[in-house]
Amino acid sequence: MKKKKILFLFLILGLMSSAILMYDKYFPSQSLAVFRTGDRITVWVITIILFIYYITTETKPQLVPSVLSSEKETGRDKDKPDVSFKDVAGLEEIKEELQETIDFINNSYKYRRMGAKIPKGILFYGPPGTGKTLLAKAVAGETNSTFLYASGSEFVEKYVGVGAKRVRTLFEKAKKEAPSIIFIDEIDAIGTKRNLESNNEKDQTLNQLLVEMDGFNTNETVIVIGATNRIDLLDEALLRPGRFDRHIFVGNPNVRAREQILEVHTKNKPLDKSIDIQDIAKKTHGLSGAQLANIANEAAIITVRNNKNFIGIEEFNAAIERVLAGLEVKNPTVLHKEKKTVAIHEAGHALVSKVLETDMVQKVSIVPRGQALGYVLKFPDEERYLLTQTELLNKITGLLAGRAAEELVFKEITTGAKDDLNKATDIAREMVCSYGMTPLGQIAVEDHYISQNFNLIRVEIKKIIDDCYKKAYTILDENEKLLHDISNTLLEQETLTSDELDEIFKKYEKPLDYAT
């Protein structure tokens, strides 16, 4: 770099001298009369040579791979985020937990006086879209720290040693810009468990990360924040205290958090006065913050499409269906026979789910969306964290009710129950292998045990599925008139709301209590 600056200086001097001598050639002056023609040509030639040499050094081709000759910029460089905890809706418990870390960065002398050490690493783990990256940016924003972002995949290269070098460079930057926060997204890309079959380059990168996290100077305020969806894949050495001291689960928001998230994402949108954010929050059970943001954005897009000035409840309902069920097929080519089958199938789901009171049925539709020819939107009427064995069995019964309705009415089954069977089997497998809700006993079965004893576990899963299917068939058989009424209404209207479904139920005697 220094050599190039000196070369540039000589080039400027040469150009100035050449220009002066060129001017003197046409407008002679007495002071430059000592320069003969040969001297002038020499200055011009030297200037041309300097110019050519400078140009060639600027565009000199690299003879080695770029990943080895120059260091890759991993962190989008230094960045001071303008995000604070005010921009993070919900997650109150996590924000409270992080306040201690923020206070340590801002007032480190208090803690050092007591001999306390700052946590070296914080690991956010949980499902995607729950706000892990946003939390990391908010911590940096609250402390006015330098925020260095890197993705785990950026350290993975085919050239041995490149990943380790990038880790060293990242931590060197962090030390120079302290206080600073290093955020490594999808850390499982480099932090997976080491074994005999693992990649040598990836192991070197992980080893370098372990050394840097455990070895950097404690006087420099550098915090590493990692994020992953798969904490079970991470190496034990990475998770131990002294590296990632704190593990914080960032899960899907509860109803109160969903309400706060929706308020944040709708504050700059013109909402109709009839909109009740709390009601929308109840309808979006189990959705992540990213999905809620998408719903608010989709509602605004649909409003523009409908040439309206304010976002109404119809737009929000359409947005929820768009996110959950997929894109509506405008001109479906579904045969009348298939449409009737779909109507019976969805009516079966709605009837059994309502009778067993597994969830609140919000909407039943036979309008194709995505790959589904019909769907039933169901949400719990209250937040639940624990489910009983009976409630899980009722959920499976509701899932199998569509196929049971097909067999009851048409004496035949179709391929339409594929997704229902997958979900029902997943719940039954969890009951057998994780919840200890079968004759196998109060045990949790590990993955390797499942593969070795598949037949034994398959028998238990099949017994649960068969019993639930029989129960669904019985409920539908005893309420067949109600099933056909719901199905016929669906064929006429294509959709049924919760209130319209209630009106159909009122025509008939209350079905027997099957919930227990």
Automatic annotation (TrEMBL):
<keyword id="KW-0862">Zinc</keyword>
<dbReference type="InterPro" id="IPR003960">
    <property type="entry name" value="ATPase_AAA_CS"/>
</dbReference>
<dbReference type="InterPro" id="IPR003959">
    <property type="entry name" value="ATPase_AAA_core"/>
</dbReference>
<keyword id="KW-0645">Protease</keyword>
<comment type="similarity">
    <text>Belongs to the AAA ATPase family.</text>
</comment>
<feature type="binding site">
    <location>
        <position position="420"/>
    </location>
    <ligand>
        <name>Zn(2+)</name>
    </ligand>
</feature>
<keyword id="KW-0482">Metalloprotease</keyword>
<feature type="active site">
    <location>
        <position position="346"/>
    </location>
</feature>
<dbReference type="InterPro" id="IPR005936">
    <property type="entry name" value="FtsH"/>
</dbReference>
<keyword id="KW-0812">Transmembrane</keyword>
<feature type="binding site">
    <location>
        <position position="349"/>
    </location>
    <ligand>
        <name>Zn(2+)</name>
    </ligand>
</feature>
<feature type="binding site">
    <location>
        <position position="345"/>
    </location>
    <ligand>
        <name>Zn(2+)</name>
    </ligand>
</feature>
<feature type="domain" description="AAA+ ATPase">
    <location>
        <begin position="118"/>
        <end position="254"/>
    </location>
</feature>
<keyword id="KW-0378">Hydrolase</keyword>
<keyword id="KW-1133">Transmembrane helix</keyword>
<protein>
    <recommendedName>
        <fullName>ATP-dependent zinc metalloprotease FtsH</fullName>
        <ecNumber>3.4.24.-</ecNumber>
    </recommendedName>
</protein>
<dbReference type="InterPro" id="IPR041569">
    <property type="entry name" value="AAA_lid_3"/>
</dbReference>
<dbReference type="InterPro" id="IPR003593">
    <property type="entry name" value="AAA+_ATPase"/>
</dbReference>
<keyword id="KW-0472">Membrane</keyword>
<keyword id="KW-0067">ATP-binding</keyword>
<comment type="similarity">
    <text>In the C-terminal section; belongs to the peptidase M41 family.</text>
</comment>
<dbReference type="Pfam" id="PF17862">
    <property type="entry name" value="AAA_lid_3"/>
</dbReference>
<dbReference type="Pfam" id="PF00004">
    <property type="entry name" value="AAA"/>
</dbReference>
<dbReference type="Pfam" id="PF01434">
    <property type="entry name" value="Peptidase_M41"/>
</dbReference>
<feature type="binding site">
    <location>
        <begin position="126"/>
        <end position="133"/>
    </location>
    <ligand>
        <name>ATP</name>
    </ligand>
</feature>
<dbReference type="InterPro" id="IPR000642">
    <property type="entry name" value="Peptidase_M41"/>
</dbReference>
<comment type="function">
    <text>Acts as a processive, ATP-dependent zinc metallopeptidase for both cytoplasmic and membrane proteins. Plays a role in the quality control of integral membrane proteins.</text>
</comment>
<keyword id="KW-0547">Nucleotide-binding</keyword>
<keyword id="KW-1003">Cell membrane</keyword>
<dbReference type="GO" id="GO:0008237">
    <property type="term" value="F:metallopeptidase activity"/>
</dbReference>
<comment type="subunit">
    <text>Homohexamer.</text>
</comment>
<keyword id="KW-0479">Metal-binding</keyword>
